[in-house]
Design goal:
The complex is a heterodimer of chains A (about 900) and B (about 170).
Chain A: E1 2-6, E2 9-13, H1 19-25, E3 49-53, E4 62-65, E5 76-78, H2 82-95, H3 113-121, E6 144-146, H4 156-164, E7 171-173, E8 180-182, H5 197-200, E9 206-208, H6 209-213, E10 222-223, E11 226-227, E12 236-242, E13 245-251, H7 264-268, E14 283-286, E15 289-292, H8 295-307, E16 311-313, H9 320-330, E17 335-336, H10 341-354, E18 359-360, H11 364-367, E19 372-376, H12 380-383, H13 385-394, H14 397-405, H15 413-420, E20 427-431, E21 443-446, H16 449-463, H17 477-489, E22 493-498, H18 504-521, E23 526-531, H19 537-543, H20 550-558, E24 564-568, H21 578-587, E25 590-595, E26 607-610, E27 619-622, E28 627-631, H22 644-649, H23 656-666, E29 689-690, E30 721-722, E31 769-770, E32 796-801, H24 815-820, E33 825-828, H25 830-836, E34 843-846, E35 853-857, E36 865-869, E37 883-884, E38 886-888
Parallel strand pairs in A: 1-5, 16-17, 16-24, 18-23, 19-20, 19-22, 20-21, 22-23, 24-25, 25-26, 29-30, 32-36, 33-35
Antiparallel strand pairs in A: 1-2, 3-4, 3-5, 6-9, 7-8, 10-12, 11-12, 12-13, 14-15, 14-26, 27-28, 28-31, 32-37, 33-36, 34-35, 34-38
Chain B: E1 5-6, E2 11-12, H1 18-28, H2 38-49, H3 54-64, H4 68-77, E3 89-94, H5 97-101, H6 104-115, E4 128-133, E5 145-147, E6 150-152, H7 157-168
Parallel strand pairs in B: 3-4
Antiparallel strand pairs in B: 1-2, 3-5, 5-6
Helix pairs in contact in B: 1-2, 2-3, 3-4
The chains are: A alpha/beta (about 900), B alpha+beta (about 170).
């Protein structure tokens, strides 16, 4: 700790940081643009100038940029100094010379960092009256609007997009007052993390296109702390609602998980909530007739289901409460997992490994600290995207350690990057196809699943001879030695695998590598990150009995042993072979399906109950680490939809907190779930937290088209949050906040006012609760078990490819995501394309599969392997055999095609 | 790297000529990595083609394995990389302090009258493009301008007429 004096007041600060960061950590207001808490300093904008004095006798001082000056012990500075203040006012005046001052029509208005800083700097009168520089804007795809005229040239966008997120298609162009931030030409921004530009840009150059189409000022949005349901990472979000529709979603800081950034699936994949295809009424379906159920009929139906020994099928996209309630209704022995059978096995395996004391499952912020990483065939960019962004930071640990050796502070961003150039910490990627992280990988091995698994086992065996080796590793002996050595030399090695590759051997190999490392290191557990695909895969896995697979449920139904089944928020046609599902469901007398949108499964139901979406209910989910998080209700659903657990609970009075507590006390492994609930003692005078801001407007007029009398504000009897402006909003003493706002800080950058220190824990809101208890004894090494198919002449081994836009069922039903989705494709090597006589973009048929797929020739595919992307339910992955052969197809490529596909090794022009 | 495509216009990389490739390869031997050759490659292509078209830019990006956006950043940062077609002769006319004191404004008016072009424009016959530069480092012999590779000093209206007819006849530096 160092002592510094700011405007005559003494502060304890961290000397490893710069003055700007420390001023903000102390809660002081000092304007800035180019600095970002996650990206360090470059000293580009000159906005954070302060006066620094040599010693107590120095009355003159010199102007320094706070972001470029270390907070060293004994520093004496002044923010309020007249010269520093006027310098800052002049700087912002020059930055804004060509700014259009179009705040009334700008989507950033009201949450604009530039507005805030302008006011704070005291530049309130515009003197420049000459011609402004204007720019041509670009089309950047369905997510982001471009309005370059608003740019103040702080360079944050390219520093984020290129340096932090590894994008290559956004750059700074031209120079001096013509400087331009955009693509080489119009086109879709390729990075999976482009949406963060909306928050990174301090003004309205990059804005949310979907939000812009049905725009509402931040202060008019109703918001609450929420959790993204797009994958198993569980990033924290702030969705905003107005007039009954969900308008947009922005990042909500969580120091352990997402920090300041989201992926584009999470940010833009929410508007299925507003879909016209939402289910709205509880109905009984008789053939093509549908009849709305009254509450009496509903009660009768529920009684019928619970008395007839119905089985229940849960869902990894439903909350803990809903899965738990279904389990209560049908009984634990009749509660089956809604995973595919392979995934069920993998998830159970992962839960088992999570309790092993040899391993630690790292949070996203811990992943950023890894200094040697191996990924075993999990395409993280497409299955847990936020993790890929974290891995891009982990490879920079080499740069940071080089900087430390040279006594360069880590926040000196440009200097650290200049020093390190292309030097990175080791990242080894084993995969059956090229991935979007290959550009920062030290080793990329693209091989058949059999070889990949053998390499994984061999690395573990190289680290510790007690670990079993398995199979031939081909010519990869050197790589195995190198990677084993890198992992052993690392301070914090990390091993990543997951379920989506569909190969449990890889999970076993990953566990063996981590165990071998742990054996070498002694006490400390080793970071082993095993990914599951959906928001509550872990929660469901913990609630269901190991033997209760979906396959067994379908068998039981097909055998005629049960006549009634309840399916919770799940489309079984995505979990098992369609023929098997069809055969089973046709045997049922009654099928009850609870869901929010129509699916092929709801089409087979006799009773359909509409459920609420993530923003319409309070719920808990368990992420890949076993971290349970509470997501609040943001807005009301005005149809008959209810949270699934409420339908299943029937007439019994029960609020959500009671439900969470019940789950906590009754379900094994969930005993800490109750800790997520807000403690009433934290609330001032028992007052609720408003979901609406103090400036929420139009309350008396919002329904004036229906009735001129002001309606009573909706009451939320259950939650600690209110559907109104009344109560205690986000102040220092509130436990939760609806959205981030502080006096003078209207943008999301106000978050610094709520952190214990910059980049530290939040005083408001919680980071979640880790549910999984470690066992006392660690487990043993695992053996390879999978039998790999023999590939006959002319056929290809199938591996499944995932896409960030399309592989997640719900986000795939959002408008802007649909614009980025492609049709199903089959990725094959040029050699196989030649052998089959197909060209890039041809349609082919796969044996046994109805839907044709598009050929995508990928230069790095291994021969004999086909990477198949199944689209959004167009192809049932469970119907795919282990090996396939290609056939001719007469169909023509649909409108969507694979034009928008962003992968690194497409050979567009290839022809045999 | 794969062929770069400009989505909106469907523009594709052209094929670099053998001479361009030979020159770029020579530079690659001098620099530590391919990425560092970007600016030299742009200069080489400009030398051969007169300017750098989108197709050329994409070709260089493909050849050097550089993102097109990054190379565009380099190309547009430097004023003397031409991203639009220029005339056969480029006049770099100094309008900085020394030349201004020595009366360059009158000379510029004379060029404008003679060739009917302002700064940034190309004469209708495609012979000349007039571009201002801040200084050519020859202030003691101001006013000065550069045409092609040649520096012309102590300019007068008569000298400018001579220079124009000289290059019109194709007796330039090339």
């Amino acid at each position: 700790m160092a002592k510094i004096v700011i405007d005559g007041v003494s502060y304890e600060v961290d000397p490893a940081n710069n003055l700007l960061q420390e001023c903000l950590s102390q809660g002081l207001d000092l304007p800035y643009f180019c600095w970002h808490p996650c990206m360090g300093s470059v000293g580009a904008c000159r906005q954070c100038a302060v006066k620094q004095y040599r010693d107590a006798d120095d009355k003159d001082g010199i102007l320094v940029m706070a972001c470029m000056t270390p907070a060293s012990d004994g520093a004496i500075i002044s923010i309020e100094d007249a010269q520093a203040s006027s310098f800052r006012a002049d700087v912002i005046e020059s930055l804004m010379i060509s700014h259009p001052h179009d705040c009334p029509v700008c989507e950033e208005g009201g949450e604009c960092h530039l507005q805030d800083m302008t006011l704070m700097s005291g530049h309130n009168y515009r003197r420049y009256d000459k011609k402004k520089v204007t720019h041509r804007n670009q089309y950047l795809g369905p997510f982001i609007n471009h309005e370059m005229n608003r740019c103040i040239a702080c360079y944050r966008c390219v520093r984020y997009y290129d340096d932090y997120a590894g994008g290559t298609d956004l750059s700074v162009q031209a120079s001096h007052h013509h400087v331009y931030f955009g693509r080489q030409a119009d086109g879709v921004l390729e990075s999976e993390f482009s949406g963060n530009l909306v928050e990174v840009c301090p003004t309205g150059v990059f804005t949310d296109k979907g939000f812009s189409k049905h725009y509402t000022r931040k202060w008019d949005l109703q918001s609450a702390p929420s959790v993204c349901v797009g994958c198993a990472v569980g990033c924290n979000t702030t969705p905003g609602e107005r007039y009954g529709t969900l308008r947009r979603l922005v990042n909500r800081y969580n120091s352990e998980i997402n920090g300041y950034f989201l992926c584009d699936r999470g940010r833009f994949g929410f508007d299925y909530v507003n879909s016209e295809q939402r289910l709205t009424e509880p109905v009984r379906l008789l053939g093509s007739e549908s009849q709305t159920l009254s509450s009496e009929e509903l009660a009768e139906t529920l009684a019928e289901f619970s008395n007839s020994g119905a089985i229940g099928i849960g869902s990894p996209r439903a909350s803990n409460e809903s899965n738990f309630m279904l389990r209560c209704l049908v009984g634990q022995e009749n509660f089956y997992s809604g995973f595919s059978d392979t995934e069920h096995g993998a998830v159970q395996h992962i839960i088992e490994l999570a309790a092993d004391p040899a391993f630690h499952c790292p949070s996203i912020s811990e992943i950023e600290q890894a200094d040697a990483v191996i990924i075993l065939s999990e395409d993280v960019t497409n299955t847990a995207p936020r993790l890929a962004l974290a891995l891009r930071q982990s490879v920079r640990n080499k740069a940071l350690s080089l900087a430390e050796d040279c006594h360069i502070p880590r926040w000196q961003d440009a200097a650290v990057r200049e020093l390190a150039q292309q030097q990175r910490s080791p990242l080894c990627i084993l995969s059956s196809y090229a991935t979007r992280l290959d550009d920062v990988a030290s080793d990329t091995v693209i091989e058949t699943p059999r070889v990949l698994s053998a390499i994984g086992f061999a690395i573990a065996n190289k680290i510790s001879a007690t670990a079993p080796a398995a199979g031939a590793t081909g010519e990869h002996g050197e790589l195995i030695e190198r990677v084993a050595a890198q992992l052993m030399a690392a301070q914090r090695p990390l091993v990543i695998a997951g379920t989506t590759a569909g190969n449990t051997d890889l999970i076993a190999a990953a566990a063996n590598i981590a165990r071998a490392l742990q054996e070498n290191r002694g006490d400390t557990p080793v970071d082993l990150c095993l990914l599951v695909p959906e928001v509550n895969s872990m929660g469901l896995g913990m609630l269901v009995n190991q033997e209760n697979t979906l396959g067994r449920a379908l068998e039981k139904i097909s055998s005629g042993a049960v006549s009634h089944a309840v399916v919770l928020e799940n489309d079984l046609y995505r979990r098992a072979d369609s023929a098997v599902v069809d055969a089973a469901l046709s045997r049922l007398d009654n099928l009850m399906v609870l869901d929010l949108l129509d699916t092929p499964t709801t089409a087979k139901a006799s009773v359909v109950l509409p459920t609420t979406a993530f923003s319409e209910h309070e719920a808990t989910y368990v992420n890949y680490e076993g971290r349970a998080q509470l997501s609040f209700q943001v807005h009301r659903n005005h149809s008959a939809a209810k949270p699934a657990w409420r339908w299943l609970n029937g007439d019994q009075e029960c609020d959500v907190e009671t439900m969470v507590n019940r789950c906590s006390s009754e379900a094994r492994g969930f005993d800490k779930l109750g800790q997520l609930l807000p403690d009433p003692a934290e609330f001032v005078a028992g007052m609720k937290i408003p979901r609406q801001s103090q400036r929420y407007s139009g309350r008396t007029a919002i329904k004036a088209n229906l009735n001129v009398h002001e309606p009573k504000q909706a009451v939320d009897p259950e939650s600690i949050m209110a559907f109104s402006m009344e109560g205690i909003s986000a102040q220092t003493d509130a436990a939760f906040m609806a959205s981030s706002w502080a006096p003078q800080w209207n943008s999301n950058q106000s978050i610094s006012k709520f952190q214990e220190e910059i980049n530290g824990k939040l005083k408001q809101g919680h980071t979640g609760t880790l549910l999984i208890e470690k066992r006392a004894a660690s487990g043993a090494y695992l053996q390879a078990e999978r039998a790999y198919p023999d590939i006959s002449e002319g056929s290809l081994e199938v591996v499944l490819a995932q896409q960030i836009f399309g592989s997640d069922e719900l986000s795939a039903r959002s408008n802007s995501i649909q614009e980025r989705m492609t049709d199903p494709y089959i990725g094959i090597s040029p050699a196989d394309a030649r052998a089959h006589g197909v060209r890039h973009g041809d349609m082919v048929s796969l044996d046994g599969i109805d839907a044709p797929v598009i050929v995508c020739i990928r230069s790095k595919m291994p021969a004999g392997v086909a990477a198949i992307y199944c689209g959004d339910g167009e192809i049932n992955p469970h119907a795919l055999p282990e090996t396939i052969s290609l056939g001719k197809s007469e169909s023509t490529v649909g409108e969507r095609g694979i034009r928008g596909l962003i992968i690194s090794d497409v050979l567009e022009d290839y022809s045999p | 790297m794969n062929k770069q495509i400009i989505a909106s216009s469907g523009q594709r990389a052209r094929q670099l000529t053998a001479a361009e490739i030979a020159d770029i390869d020579h530079e690659m031997g001098i620099y530590p990595d391919k990425q560092a050759v970007g600016l030299e490659a742009l200069k080489i292509v400009q030398k051969h083609q007169g300017w750098v078209s989108d197709e050329s830019l994409l070709a260089i990006a493909g050849y050097l394995d550089l993102p097109a956006a990054e190379l565009e950043g380099v190309a547009t940062f430097f004023n003397l990389i031409y991203r639009q077609p220029v005339g056969r002769n480029v006049m770099l006319f100094c309008d900085s302090v020394s030349c201004w004191i020595m009366g360059c404004e009158g000379l510029k008016a004379h060029i404008k009258e003679t060739l009917d072009i302002d700064f940034g424009e190309t004469s209708p016959d495609g012979d000349f493009t007039l571009i201002p530069v801040p200084c050519l480092g020859d202030c003691d012999r101001a006013p000065v301008m550069m045409v092609g590779e040649d520096l012309h000093r102590n300019l007068t209206t008569e000298k400018i007429d001579e220079i124009i007819s000289h290059y019109r006849r194709g007796e330039g530096s090339e």
